[in-house]
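ingest -> validate -> predict -> emit
validate: passed (alphabet ok, no gaps, 380 aa)
predict: started
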Amino acid sequence: MSGKGFLDRYEATLSGLARRSRLRSLSSRSGLDFASNDYLGLARSKRMREAVAAALAAGTSVGATGSRLLRGNDPEHEALEAKAADVFGAERALFFGGGYVANFAVLTTLPQKGDLVVLDELVHASAHEGARAGRADVVEAAHNDASAVEDAIVAWRVMGGTGRPWIVVESLYSMDGDRAPLGELIEVADRHDAFLFIDEAHATGIYGPIGCGLAHDLEGRDNVVALHSCGKALGASGALVTAPAVLCDYLVNRCRPFIYATAPSPLMAVAAATALDIVADEPDRRERLAGLVALAGKRAENLGLPASGSQILPIIVGDNRRTMALAQALQSRGFDVRGIRPPTVPEGTARIRISLTLNVGEDDVSALFDALAGEWERAS
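emit:
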């Protein structure tokens, strides 16, 4: 069936995005990697490839064939979850197909009707979507402002809120590269009998003892839930939710994105478990990444730009068109950097997101900043 007008509204939306320099399209990998989240260079790791190949040779299936509650619960899933709980210091862990669905799953399931979810305004889109699709009241708090979080909880109590507050943050923010004040936030949580849900996606594997994250000293508490991505520094895919055992059991029984989804591939569970071993066995990877972070920070400051202190270094341009022009100029010189525009980041803060990984070396970082120095002057 066809007819004039069926696609008009979609074409109009795309045309509007194009006019505002916000139209997205897919592009292939090309040039030096300053765009991926493969921070420790594990996605092509020989040790991970060999582990997956050995699992296949031993009879591990490619697909899980069903949900975990049907026939999709493989020994590889359970082995990964047991290892993760031990590594991260949590009572239990639960493996999901990806970080987006894990955030959405937790926030549509654990906060109850009558509870309050306080979102850092810059927390990942999946947390915003999950909170708003759930049953609890939802408010946003100013970025990295523990006092604003506390004020939101107090105001909600004054208005008659009687449930449990949930504070939702990223430990390391994916578009700004800055860290949440976790010490202050756990104090707020303790004062107000609140849960603290920490998305460790960009910290897992890199920070903390044996790469166990920035929240490593908080895990294992009754009021702390964390999310650890397997698809960034760990080089695989999927995500692990670590929490008290009763909360994991509740997710197994009440979480629709877990109950009704086909389980992740058991091969990805093997890959993620191997990555956790590599991170523990090869601390030099984290040390080399720290060296690249220090070099990039120094070069950025030499250009009058702020250093983030992490492997995520945003170069704020502001204007969408100028941002994309700068990204394209750097891409044409062999550097894979990407422009990030609203709504991923707030209006007026379009940026180049430089991601530092072990897929490049110090000479590559220096070359990027040499190129950026000239292009930045032209873009300003």
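The chain has a mean pLDDT of 94.
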